[in-house]
Design brief:
Length: about 240
């Protein structure tokens, strides 16, 4: 109930007015049954805009920290994240990858839509980075289709949210589902997981038009940029870095 209240009354209308989102490929959302949605990750607003186009509830995996706060702030945080389709996982221990896999399987086994960002972190410079194989592993274990999603302009939206009128416009593009049945006999095969992941990243890139950095993980690029900052380098002199 709270999910739909947030989507249609409390948050959705604000996003539609300020972000003026456009949507393509609505017909590619499965009408029923479980499916894994995978998308690029430009900003904190991605998970707010994408569900606006989905005809069904979309669940995301979120840090359990959002659910452990105390006092009024903690209560409001739990209320918001639970109501907006977040499923808590503990990312602080060595078994965090397995915890995410188990949580994802739980959501999909309930017949729901689950969204994961294969880059594993927000892009530091607007480019699309090498995908991690966790989402492919999850989809293969669950035997569900994977739907690529491309969000365009959400980073600019966040930068300009305090300016009115906003000149940024957010676009959400939904691609055709990738059927994992072709890899059904290769569950647990790391090579198959990489094949699926690379294909998904190519499909996401086709939806967004982003430059695709196929040989570097976003988290590694963030570490590189941080090291440059700490050494006093000017990021403006680094091709493809944050100050693009």
């Amino acid at each position: 109930m709270l999910y739909w209240l947030l989507k249609y009354v409390l948050i959705g209308p604000f996003l539609r007015v300020t972000g003026r989102p456009t949507f393509e490929g609505r017909e590619n959302f499965p009408a029923s049954g479980p499916a894994l949605l995978v998308g690029n990750h430009l900003s904190v607003a991605d998970w707010l805009f994408m569900p606006l186009v989905a005809p069904r509830r979309v669940t995301f995996l979120a840090k359990s920290d959002y659910y452990t706060g105390t006092g009024i702030k903690g209560m409001l945080s739990r209320w918001f994240f639970a109501g907006s389709g977040q499923h808590p996982i503990d990312r602080t221990n060595a078994d965090s990858a397995q915890a995410a896999l188990d949580a994802g399987l739980e959501v999909l086994s309930s017949g729901e839509l689950l969204c994961i960002y294969p880059e594993g972190t927000r892009s530091p410079d607007g480019r699309l980075y090498r995908g991690k194989t966790g989402p492919a592993r999850l989809a293969m274990r669950a035997g569900v289709p994977i739907v690529p999603v491309g969000v365009i302009g959400s980073d600019e939206y966040v930068r300009r949210i305090r300016r009115f009128p906003l000149s940024a416009r957010v676009r959400v593009r939904i691609g055709e589902p990738l059927d994992t049945a072709a890899w059904a006999d290769r569950v647990g095969d790391r090579a198959a997981e990489r094949e699926i992941t690379d294909e998904l990243m190519r499909r996401i890139q086709a939806l967004t038009g982003q430059e695709y950095v196929h040989d570097t993980y976003g988290a590694d690029e963030k570490k590189r940029l941080q090291a440059l900052r700490e050494s006093g380098h000017n990021l403006l002199d680094q091709p493809g870095d944050e100050q693009r």
